[in-house]
Structure formats: structure tokens, C-alpha cells
Amino acid sequence: MSQQVDQVRAVIWVEGALRLLDQRLLPLEQHYIVCTDVAGVAAGIRDMVVRGAPAIGVAAAYGVAMAVAARYAENGAGWRQAVEADLTLLAESRPTAVNLFWAIERMRALIEKLDGDPRQAVVAEACRIDAEDLAANRRMGELGAALIGARCAVMTHCNAGALATAGYGTALGVIRAAHAAGKVSQVYADETRPWLQGSRLTAWELLQDGIPVTLLADGAGAHLMKQGEVKWLIVGSDRIAANGDVCNKIGTYHAAITARYHGVKLMVVAPTSTIDMSLASGEEIPIEARDEDELLTFGGKQVAATGARAWNPVFDVTPAELVDAIVTERGVVLQPNAEKMAALMVE
Ligand code: MRU
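Above: inputs. Below: predicted complex with MRU.
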């Protein structure tokens, strides 16, 4: 299947520094923040400069590499102990996307084995994590596009694209591959309140690659699905539990229920670094709650009635029974359950 070249890169390693495309400013401004230390990377993750589960993991891996270099310069042989505080700082930046913890643990496993000057080895490992994520996305693009039969409209939620990964994207990788194969008549993207990852990020990055996109208010999905044009809801994930429950941006669960009611299939596209086999079900996934001002204000201006409070969980869990396919770089799991997830992860 031909693969469309994607243009967007959110995380770029250049000569000892990390360039993060500031996703808070898109689409109006394309500005890279340069991080030269681990504190800058942790702040970039916490403050949503970089967001999206795999991109957070890749950024954290480079953050660890910078931390190791700094601690080695300061402490010599004592660097390994000193760097623990930096790993904790990174781990505390956001709670839900497991790719963050997966990347930190992978870097820690390497660190435990190193002797002598660790600097080259940690950078090489972070670069491998980065390259593997891009390769996984391209593979998932092929596998997911193959599931789409006749040309149809597809719908997505949040941004699970190049901006949320090392490049190409998970859900948007499938949409890119399916579009290149002529299988997509229309892409509908939820605007994704309150951060507007759909209207600001998904729309921008698809248009960069010449893929037309139509935005929807988050509440418009049921009415759209009722028309019959949309055959697939395609989303990414921040953490998938051992039984196949899928955590993703708030509103995904709502869209998944709507999809099942209307006979629209749900495809979740995520690398195995997003699968957390230590959690039996989605009930155990920590859900990030962000500041209520994200709902009470817009563009820094109050929009809600004075005195109103807001509840702002930013992820939700879709039960496995609502998922038709989980697409990973290792293969596709149809109608996921605990047995099928275990079989995928031992392969
Ligand atoms: O709060 P965000 O923007 O980091 O949330 C991102 C999402 O929910 C994405 O859908 C998910 O990380 C999958 S990205 C390939």
C-alpha cells in the first residue's frame, strides 16, 4: 500500500537539545521551544507544549538523555544515583499516558547496564525509541487501512497524528494510509473541547498533507453517524489495560457508545508501548483532572456564569466490548479481551 509522506514533526533532537513544536500556539503560529535540560522537557510535557501519548514518551526519553549528560558532567561516577531525581521529575509531569512511564523505564533499564561515559549510549537509545515509534506508526497505518473496506467517511477524536507521535501518527496514520489508497471519502474531526486538539491540531496537520477535513462540534457526532456516511470511528489511546479497555481523550467513550448504536465500527490505533499489562482493567487507569478554568474561560476570558464550577477530567475509558479492533505494530486484535491482549503481548 502506498504511504503518503507526512510533513509534521513535533519532537526534534538537534545536537544535544530538544526542539518541541509548541502545540499551544498552533495553528496560528509555528514556533519551536528549545529545551536544553530535563526540567525544560518536564515543563514542556506538563504545560502541553508537547502532548499525545507517544510524543510524550519520545520527549521524555530525550529528557533522560539530557539528564544523564548533565549529571555525568556534575557528578562523574555518582551520576546514576543523581539522575533518579530527574526521572521522578519527568514521571510527575502527566499521569495518564503510559508511554511516559514506559520510556522512562526503558531508559532506566539501559542506565542500569552502563559502565564508563554513558552519554552516547543514552542518546542512541532515545533515538531508537523515536525511530521505532515512527516505524510502528507506518506499520499500523498499513494494518489499519487494510481493515477499511469500501470507500467511506471516517471520524476521529482529539489529535492522534504526527503531532502526537514521532511522526505519521496512529489514528491519523491509518487515515493517511487509507486516504492514499483512495478509501476515504471524507474525514470528520471532533473539535475536542476544551483544548481543541481536533480543530487546532488534527485539522492543521491533515491540511499540511493535503487531506481535506471537516470539523464537528463534539456533540454533533450522533447526528452525523445517523446519516450513514461514516463507517469507522478511528482514535488513538493514552493507555490500554490488559483486558483491552481503552483510555483516550475525554469524549471518546461518548463517541464509542454513539458509534455502536449506529453500526459505526471503532478502531483504536496504538503502539504496544501504550499497552499497560500491569492494569487488569481500565478502572485502574489514573485519569488526569485539569484546572476548571479550562472550561470556565476561553482565550483567557470568562465565558461561564460567575460562581459556576467545572468538572474537567481530560481522559475517559471505553470498555473493550465497544472496540472492534485494536491496531498495533505487532498486529490487529479484533474484539479485544484479556486472552487476546495477552497473546499479542507475549509474541
Ligand atoms: O491531552 P492530550 O492532548 O495529550 O491527549 C492526547 C490524546 O488523548 C490522544 O488521542 C492520545 O494520546 C493518542 S496520540 C497518538
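The radius of gyration is 20 Å.
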